[in-house]
Amino acid sequence: MKHNDFYLKILENNKAWVEEKLAINPNYFKRLSERQTPPVLWIGCSDSRVPANEIIGAEPGDVFVHRNIANMVIHSDMNMLSVLDYAVNILKVTNIIVCGHYGCGGVLAAMKNESYGLIDNWIRHIKTVYRLHNVELDQIDDEVVRFNRFVELNVQEQVYDLAKTSIVQGAWARQQDLSIHGWVYGLNSGYVTDLEVNVTNNQDLDEVYQLRFKKI
């Protein structure tokens, strides 16, 4: 089987990266393989232009990552829930960052009525965010400004949806140090905008979402 040039190039890039790391520290990979204790769970978009580690200058082992289209937190998504459970209950991360990005194709699709096929079922969850904030969004005449604001509001809702999970609330009930933050990354600038949407306990949620755990 003949591989294309790009495929062969990335294999060579891996070899060069390994050699670079070993030249700095001969025990780099030995240390990395022994355990992972990341302080951060990153829930981001699958967009190839938004690499979690590089954006924040983190090393391998610093960030536990889950990515999907439009950085969604969907309570029936067992993939996301499994990552969240492992990060919170096993790795004991202290920060969860939901990072969206301006120019997100999933969010843009949710602003339209076109059918894109199977992905329509995923985009429907993003449309729900628009419905929740339609009064504010529909008052914005400039489409780019409205699009950017929708990206921000989508991140905000995912932060609160994380806080509503039994996994996160269980950690808070045990007095575990855990904070959730909402960010948006600028593709055309490289800078992260902290939306100052930060949740550290379930008191920030409507009472109906505040779970009470039985003491064992």
Automatic annotation (TrEMBL):
Reported cofactor(s): Zn(2+)
Superkingdom per UniProt: Bacteria
SMART domains for the chain: Pro_CA
Gene3D superfamilies xrefs: Carbonic anhydrase (3.40.1050.10)
Swiss-Prot/TrEMBL GO biological process terms: carbon utilization
Keywords annotated in UniProt: Lyase, Metal-binding, Zinc
Pfam families in the record: Pro_CA
First-level EC class: lyase
Reactions that this protein is recorded to catalyse: hydrogencarbonate + H(+) = CO2 + H2O
PANTHER family attached to this UniProt entry: CARBONIC ANHYDRASE (PTHR11002)
Family statement: Belongs to the beta-class carbonic anhydrase family.
Protein name according to UniProt: Carbonic anhydrase 2
Species this chain originates from: Myroides albus
